[in-house]
Amino acid sequence: MMGDITLLGALLAGLVGSTHCLGMCGGIASALGMGVAPERRTPWRLFGYALAYNVGRVASYAVAGAIAGGIGLWLASLVSLGSWTSGLRVAMGLVMAAIGVQVAFNWRLLAPLERSGMRVWARIAPLARGLMPVRSPGRALLLGGLWGWLPCGLVYGMLVAAALAGGAVDGAGVMVAFGIGTMPAMVLTGTAAAVTGRLLARGRVRLALGVTILVMGVWTASVPIYSGLNALYCAPA
In the prediction, which pLDDT does 165 show? Predict the structure, then answer.
């Protein structure tokens, strides 16, 4: 079910959405390593902490994507497979198109989804705070694994796409691609992160990448519609 175009769309959404991630998670990411003694706080050590944190964060996305994809596959088993497969691809294309619109124009279309996750986050947040200050890469990894559940409309939008991907493995793949897209801006620290964030926040860059995601979404949705119409009108009498 899931194709390369879906993974590319998820990757681009993560790349542009990383400016939003910097706002929500940047404070935690920049504080990594503050529990390390100053004389041991080398750039490479801090980079290792940031990398571990983000690997944990992407791993949490993969788990959530696998759950969403599994639920989507279970729902698919309850209806006609043929009609579900076509409908699934159309729905996934529409979700990608909506994400593209949000990325291109910075519209908060998915903000209501963020509010829906606050109850879950209220239970996880104390566990995440208990891991701070971070004094080892292992704790950074665990912190990222918990912080990945922070309510985020863009993440939830991608989870909808993961649910429509066709199974647990495909759902996890969508979320891993999205997470990898967010990593460059999140792993880089200091000036490099600021430069990356400013570049991705530029209107023309956001517009170009957002429109690319939008076009891929429309293409994904249009293929089964075209195939269905072709079969309807070109069927032998």
Answer: 84
Q: Is residue 74 part of a domain?
A: yes
124: tokens are 């996880």
- Residues of the chain under the 50 pLDDT cut: 190-191, 235, 237
pLDDT at site 3:
59
The CA–CA distances, whole Å, from 27 to 138, 164, 182, 191 equal: 19, 33, 15, 14
Does 49 fall in a domain?
yes
Q: Which of 207, 212, 187 is nearest to 197 (CA)?
A: 187
The CA radius of gyration of the chain, in Å to the nearest whole number, is 19
Beta carbons of 205 and 81 less than 8 angstroms apart: no
Sign of the torsion angle spanned by Cα atoms 65, 8, 178, 56: positive
Whether 164 contacts 92, CB under 8 Å: yes
Structural domain that includes position 9: 4-226
Please classify residue 203 by burial: count the beta carbons closer than 10 Å to its beta carbon, then call 0-12 exposed, 13-18 middle and 19+ buried.
exposed
Total domains in the fold of the chain: 1
Question: Does pTM surpass 0.70?
Answer: yes
Query: What is the per-residue pLDDT for 191?
Result: 43
pLDDT at position 190 is: 45
